[in-house]
Amino acid sequence: MALTFSLGDMIETKKPHPCGGSKWQVVRTGADYKIKCLTCGRIVMLTPDELKKRVKRTLPAEG
Question: Does this model's pTM top 0.90?
């Protein structure tokens, strides 16, 4: 299964961030992905392989 992520996608990670949040938003795509924690606002850059390994599921769009 090939996972692809678009700008603005909401994702849930397998392990929570140290702040306690496990929901993230994709804020940059390309050679690397930049994701933002929706609990504390921390931004993390990951390679596509690292991101696919850490994602539990894609969340439905809010609204």
Answer: no
